[in-house]
Every structure is written in structure tokens, then in C-alpha cells.
Write a structure and sequence with these properties.
Distance between the termini: 38 Å
Oligomer: single chain
Bound molecules: ligand F0G
Strand order of the largest sheet: 2-8-7-6-5-3-4
Largest sheet: 7 strands, mixed
Number of strands: 14
Strand content: 5-15%
Number of helices: 16
Order of helices and strands: HEHHEHEHEHEHEHHEEHHHEHHEEHEHEE
Radius of gyration: 21 Å
């Protein structure tokens, strides 16, 4: 069933030319990049769906804010504006700007995790997992079973499996669980939302066992939109009210503001209770790693743009258009018989590469195969969210098998139009038609010890 594309709730004032290289050029470029899409130059990419992070188009108000940015080292008015916006939207007592999401993780996680401690999450994103491990801890994913079957169309596939969570806490010992992390939306499971009911239940468990809850809140606005649309009792609440209630369950939050904050750089860390001794520790780490606590690695102009973007990102008309893009693509993929994590999530389409390449095992990285084929097909850059990204067991060095093999087509905010999305669907359809002729995947010839997918070199296994 085809669905109507929700027209952009904006018009375009400034444009950036893009060009499609020839197939021959693309094949040479990707080989020179050792089959790693992160190694490509952006000018060699036609439609860049590598990430929705920091790739957003800012508004006229935000660009005007850039000029108003106050670059004072301490107490800048742009910081005060950001602090006011964050307190207004999230209801937290203390908010700390940082330069991006992983900086918040670096500042916060060592205060709760060390060797022998665990973090349990509905799913850790790659950098989040890395920071749990860098702090000495171990990361356990505990998403609901429904998430593991991309074809099961149920709402809130991003939820924590509450029963398993409680079992894990009892098995590990509550004193050994340093953090429970609720990732909203659940990026690795396909941008799938978490319900308010699930937030409530997980929060009750955190209280019962006295374990702090951190919200990994990169896509809080998209999550709120799904709650309003799909969860009983929320249809008449505003997005802002839903966000306030969602955050009411967290003790802390870490946030990459490069997503729903609709900026190109920025992050935040929040502590519910401004009087908590934790605030002093956060400030101390921030001053050492990021910069003074009223800028945390950001320019005044970045904080100013973010304070404005946070309100644009929670506008319901914007969110309807945004999620509408995913729904439009999802309907087209249904017509083409291409499997993806369904229903669609908030920030992209997660194509089920296991379904497209059932004959390629996880250790030959089917989702990376699809990502590379799409680049060769039409200059589209996506990324693997599967075993290639997951990497190795930090204790044994063995390749981990991911629950999913997704090739993610992340959609930057306010950047691409309906026709661009059509090009992506056409390319996916063309790759699917010849998928059976691609018999083997890739092997890694070199990899760094942490977050290998950004830098690893791959070689095609000969057929
Ligand atoms: N948490 C989640 C859920 C994320 O998706 C990301 C980043 C981070 C934390 C880290 O934030 O990049 O600002 O340091 N995700 C990007 C992505 C990179 O492509 O999904 P960061």
C-alpha cells in the first residue's frame, strides 16, 4: 500500500550541490577505502545516509543564533539560554553541555562503572558499549524478544525486557550492576521507540534494587512522537509533556544533541538533583576532559543553535513529517518485498540484510555487504548495524554474533527530499534482484582494538 509523503513543513533557502560519480569511479574509491564506508570522501557520495547525527540542516533562526553566540569562557549568555531550554524541556536540576554524546558517556560512566560492574541496557549503542568497557565494566543488552524478529510489526520494539532485567540483576547481584541505561529511541534495534509503560516499569526495578537509571536520550523527541501516536492515554498530551514524563524516570541522562537537537555538534549530560554530590564530580571530569562547565567543549554559537534547535525538534508538525519520511520509505520497501525492521523507527530504515543475503554468515558481515553494494549501485552510503559493528568479545577476542544484521539508511533531518528517498528504494530493489549472485562476504584484514568498524580494513572473500 503506498502512502502519501508528508510535505516538508519548510522551504529551502540554501542548497548544497551533490553529484553521482560513475560506477567505475565508485568501485575504485571504495576499494581504495579498504571497503570501509567511513574511509570515503563525502564528495564521492551521492546520498549520504551514513548517519543522522550532526548531518542536520539548521533553520534560519538557528543560523541567526550562530551570530548571536556569546563566546565568553565562563557564564556565557548562550550557555544560560541552553541551560534554560534544557531545564524547561527535561525538568532536570543540573545540565552540563559537552561536545557530543560520547563525551557525556566519558564524563559520567567512570563514576558508576569499574571492573566487575555491569551496565544493562535495552541496547547499548556502539560508543556507549565502548565507554562501558573503557570504564572497565561490561555491557549487557536486554531488549524485548519482539525486536529480534524484524517482520513482527508491534509497537515499542525498543523496550527493555523487564522480566529478563530482573533475572539478570538477581543473577549478577544488584551491587554489581552499576547502571541501567534506557536508550530512547533504541538505535541499534532499528530506531525503535520505548513506551512510557516500559520506562515506568524499569524505573520501579531501579528503585527496588537501588540502581541508578541513566537515559541515553539521543532521540527523545522521536520517541515522544511514537508514544503520542501509539500508546494508550497519550494522544491528547503534547510532545513536551510526554518528554517531561519520560525524563521523570531518569536519575541522569546522557545525550547526543546531534540528532533531535537538530544541530551539527553538541551534547549534554543531566543530573536530576542539582544538590547531588554527583554534580561536583561531573563538573570535575568535565573541566578535565571537555572544558569549563559552562561550555563543555562547545562554542557559544553551538550552544545558541542547540537551544533553538531543541524547540524546533519537538514541534509536532516537524515530527509528523520526519516520521512520515520513514513511513513513506517503509511502504515502498513493502511493495518491493524488501525486509526491514518493522514497523519503521524514528531515524532511518534498517534493512534486514540477513533476509537479503541468507547464505552469507554473520562472520562475513552481510549488512556490510549490502552497504557496500548500495554504494557501488548508486553512490548511497549507509552503514552496518550488525556483527561487523558489534566487534569482538572484549574478554576472549572472539567475533560476537549480533542479534541483527541491519544495513542502516539513517535519514538526516530536513536534508533529503522525496525523490532522494525514491532513489534509495530503487537502488535497494536493484541490489535485491542480484543478491543471490553475491555468494560471499568480507574478511577483516586489520582492525583496531576499540570501535573497529570506523577504521577496519576489509577484503572481499573470493567466490
Ligand atoms: N547514544 C546513542 C543512542 C547514539 O545513537 C549515539 C550516536 C551516541 C550515544 C553517541 O553520540 O555520536 O554524539 O558521540 N549515534 C550516531 C549514529 C553516531 O550514527 O547513530 P555522539
Amino acid at each position: 500500500m503506498s502512502i502519501k509523503y508528508v510535505a516538508e513543513p519548510f522551504r529551502i533557502k540554501s542548497v548544497e550541490p551533490i553529484r553521482m560519480a560513475t560506477r567505475q569511479e565508485r568501485e575504485a574509491k571504495i576499494l581504495a577505502a579498504h571497503n570501509n564506508l567511513f574511509g570515503l570522501k563525502s564528495e564521492d557520495v551521492y546520498i549520504d545516509l551514513l548517519t543522522d547525527s550532526g548531518t542536520n540542516a539548521m533553520s534560519v533562526e538557528q543560523w541567526a543564533g550562530v551570530m548571536r553566540g556569546d563566546e565568553a569562557y565562563a557564564g556565557a549568555s548562550s550557555y544560560l539560554k541552553l541551560e534554560a531550554a534544557a531545564k524547561d524541556i527535561f525538568g532536570f536540576g543540573y545540565v552540563q553541555p559537552v561536545h557530543q554524546g560520547r563525551a557525556a558517556e566519558k564524563v559520567l560512566f567512570p563514576l558508576f562503572l569499574c571492573a566487575g560492574k555491569y551496565a544493562i541496557s535495552n541496547m547499548h549503542f556502539d560508543t556507549t558499549r565502548a565507554h562501558v568497557e573503557l570504564a572497565g565494566g561490561r555491557a549487557i543488552d536486554c531488549v524485548v524478544a519482539a525486536a529480534k524478529d524484524p517482520s513482527t510489526r508491534v509497537p515499542f520494539k525498543g523496550n527493555m525486557d523487564v522480566e529478563r532485567l530482573e533475572k539478570l540483576i538477581n543473577e549478577l547481584g544488584a551491587q554489581n550492576v552499576g547502571l541501567i541505561i534506557m536508550t530512547i529511541t533504541n538505535n541499534s534495534a532499528g530506531g525503535q521507540p520505548v513506551s512510557m509503560q516500559n520506562m515506568r516499569e524499569v524505573s520501579a526495578i531501579c528503585k527496588k534494587y537501588d540502581i541508578p537509571m541513566n537515559i541515553d536520550a539521543a532521540r527523545y523527541a522521536e520517541n515522544a512522537y511514537f508514544i503520542k501516536r501509539d500508546e494508550a492515554g497519550y494522544a491528547d498530551k503534547s510532545i513536551k509533556e510526554i518528554i517531561a514524563e519520560t525524563f521523570s524516570f531518569g536519575d541522569m541522562f546522557t545525550m547526543s544533541a546531534k540528532k533531535d537537537g537538530i544541530v551539527n555538534m553538541g551534547g549534554m549530560l543531566g543530573v536530576r538533583d542539582a544538590e547531588s554530590p554527583l554534580v561536583l564530580k561531573v563538573k570535575a571530569n568535565c573541566i578535565s576532559y571537555e572544558g569549563f562547565y559552562t561550555y563543555g567543549g562547545l562554542s557559544g554559537r553551538d550552544m545558541e543553535a542547540l537551544a533553538i534547535g531543541m524547540y524546533e525538534g519537538i514541534d509536532e508538525n516537524f515530527l509528523r513529517y520526519r516520521v512520515g519520511q520513514m513511513e513513506y520509505m517503509g511502504a515502498k520497501l513493502d511493495e518491493a518485498g524488501i525486509a526491514y525492521q518493522s514497523p519503521v523507527g524514528g531515524h532511518g530504515l534498517f534493512i534486514d540484510a540477513k533476509a537479503m543475503f541468507p547464505h552469507i554468515p554473520y562472520y562475513e558481515y552481510p549488512a556490510q555487504v549490502l552497504a557496500l553494494e548500495l554504494y557501488k549501485e548508486a553512490g548511497i552510503r549507509g552503514c552496518d548495524i550488525g556483527s561487523y559493528m558489534m566487534g569482538n568479545n572484549p574478554d576472549t577476542g572472539e567475533q560476537l554474533e549480533s542479534e541483527f544484521e541491519f544495513t542502516r539508511m539513517a535519514i538526516p533531518r530536513r536534508v533529503y527530499t522525496q525523490a532522494h528517498l525514491d532513489v534509495v528504494v530503487e537502488a535497494l530493489t536493484a541490489v535485491k534482484a542480484r543478491a543471490h549472485t553475491i555468494k560471499r562476504g568480507y574478511r577483516i584484514t586489520w582492525e583496531p582494538p576499540v570501535l573497529r568498524h570506523f577504521q577496519a580494513r576489509l577484503e572481499k572473500i573470493s567466490e
